[in-house]
What does this fold into?
Amino acid sequence: MAAPGDVSVLIPAMNEAAAIGGVVRDLLAAAPWREVLVIDDGSTDATGAEAEAAGARVIRHPYNKGNGAAVKSGIRAATGDYILIVDGDGQHKPSDAVRLTSRLGEYDLVVGARSSATQAGFVRRLGNGALNGLASFLTERPVPDLTSGFRAARRTCLLEFIGLLPNGFSTPTTTTMCFIKAGYNVAFEPVEARARVGTSKIRLSRDGPKFLLIMLRVMTIFSPLRVFLPVAAASFLVGAGYAVWTVVTQRHITNSSVLLVMSSIVILLVGLVSEQVSALRFDGRR
It folds into this structure.
């Protein structure tokens, strides 16, 4: 179990002046954390000043780099053995923060898994559900909330993957996939999210495809066959099925069938080579 004195709290924030002061004060009242760091990601309002007045140490970006870049700045600047990442919009309860960090030590990553009822908007819930299902298939374990930014982890493990973290809003997706596929202990702790102050900066139509691409990128690094094998199988089944149909109906095999079957073999071979490269890449990893 991680003591609060070993935990650095990171709050990435951009233009969250209306909420950030209350978030910092509530967290400081909840437990004696080692430090509370607010990473002001190029805000044009008084986010940094409000955070400092509430008792946080503020790290300022001279311009907006993205939520992921803010998290990476906080990871590098943190002095605790463990890190708790909290959104700056007021939707996370301080009592839940204490509950998440209490499971560190036994687990290397603890994710605050939101119930579907507390996730804003039907379309957002539908999109998150699809991403959760795909992540569960790719990682071979249930992932109830892939995109929750409310999470606690060992700092050394986060530093191991810091080069893979994007600068945008997909840091939660990347860290979850990386920790699971690297074999670290990952837990999902149920939490209820409150209504955020202000409006969300994430747009499913714009950011959803980015999440999907990042998931596939992470999987091709850690477990390529989980991506290549289904594609190869689908290509083979379509090609073989079309070949059988054309033989029965037209008494010959078309070039399309041959091309699909050959493509499936090439895709499978590329997947096998990628699997070996992935194993070599992580040989001797901490």
